């Protein structure tokens, strides 16, 4: 079938591909904003890129949950990982894709500030003392794990290209 919805043992289906490449684009945007926050402080480009950080972050969080469910439904048909390391690497990517925004949302809740995304009020916020452990957890881990995720994504892209160039596993064609 030209457009298989489900994955098969030789290639990913259209849903997995859409999630993979759609999220990849959103991650490029998200990390450009994070980089702008560090390197282009107080510039127009920073406010443009960083201004969507929470909205895109929540969107990525919802998409990764969908993607994890879809991966579970397709576990038995997906193309097998080329190695134990590849399998482990993908698992860690999932772990970080879930942990990074979850920790941010915990911090956001603990700060007592409201959170609106696409005009929907996700957190009403509250008066009074902030919840210290929630705020501190985010302060300690959100940015750090976020950058670790970026490092792992760079490694992932390099490995995908290397596998295509150096071995006869053309993994890229499974995902394109
Ligand atoms: C997968 C989604 C996300 C990624 C990859 C991500 C990534 C990052 C990174 C790399 C930084 C560090 C920037 C720096 O060093 O200055 C950062 C900071 C921040 N993020 Fe996110 N983020 C995500 C989701 C979210 C969400 C959902 C929220 C809030 C609802 C959020 C709120 C913040 C805030 C307030 C900061 C600045 C404070 C800090 O450095 O921790 N992020 N994010
Ligand atoms: C130019 C960028 C990228 C390229 C060339 C690329 C390439 C690939 C390829 C070829 C596969 C299939 C590997 C296999 O079948 O063993 C794959 C799977 C995967 N990629 Fe990427 N990727 C890119 C960006 C990303 C980004 C930004 C993420 C986000 C964390 C990501 C996460 C994953 C995950 C988790 C899998 C396992 C399959 C799945 O559950 O979707 N990739 N990638």
UniProtKB/TrEMBL annotation:
The keyword Magnesium does not apply. Its cofactor is heme b. One of its GO terms (molecular function) is metal ion binding. InterPro entries: Cyt_b561_bac/Ni-Hgenase, Cytochrome_b561_oxidase, Di-haem_cyt_TM. One of its GO terms (biological process) is respiratory electron transport chain. The keyword Amino-acid biosynthesis does not apply. It holds the Pfam family Ni_hydr_CYTB. It is a multi-pass membrane protein. It is found in: Cell membrane. GO terms for cellular component: plasma membrane. The chain crosses the membrane at residues 21-40, 52-73, 85-106, 145-162. Keywords: Cell membrane, Electron transport, Heme, Iron, Membrane, Metal-binding, Transmembrane, Transmembrane helix, Transport. Its main location: membrane. It comes from the Bacteria. Residues 11-176 form the Cytochrome b561 bacterial/Ni-hydrogenase domain. Belongs to the cytochrome b561 family. PANTHER family: CYTOCHROME B561 (PTHR30529), CYTOCHROME B561 HOMOLOG 2 (PTHR30529:SF1). This is Cytochrome b.
């Amino acid at each position: 079938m030209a457009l298989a919805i489900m994955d098969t043992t030789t290639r990913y289906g259209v849903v997995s591909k859409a999630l993979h490449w759609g999220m990849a684009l959103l991650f490029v945007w998200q990390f450009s904003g994070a980089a702008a926050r560090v390197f282009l402080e107080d510039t127009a480009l920073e406010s443009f890129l960083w201004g969507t950080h929470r909205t895109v972050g929540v969107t990525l969080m919802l998409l990764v949950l969908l993607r994890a469910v879809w991966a579970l439904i397709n576990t038995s048909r997906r193309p097998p990982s080329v190695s134990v390391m590849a399998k482990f690497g993908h698992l860690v990517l999932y772990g970080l894709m879930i942990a990074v925004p979850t920790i941010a949302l915990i911090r956001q809740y603990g700060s007592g500030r409201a959170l609106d995304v696409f005009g929907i009020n996700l957190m009403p916020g509250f008066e009074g003392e902030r919840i210290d452990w929630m705020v501190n957890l985010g302060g300690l881990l959100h940015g750090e794990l976020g950058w670790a995720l970026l490092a792992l994504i760079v490694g992932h892209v390099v490995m995908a290209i290397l596998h295509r160039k150096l071995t006869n596993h053309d993994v890229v064609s499974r995902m394109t």
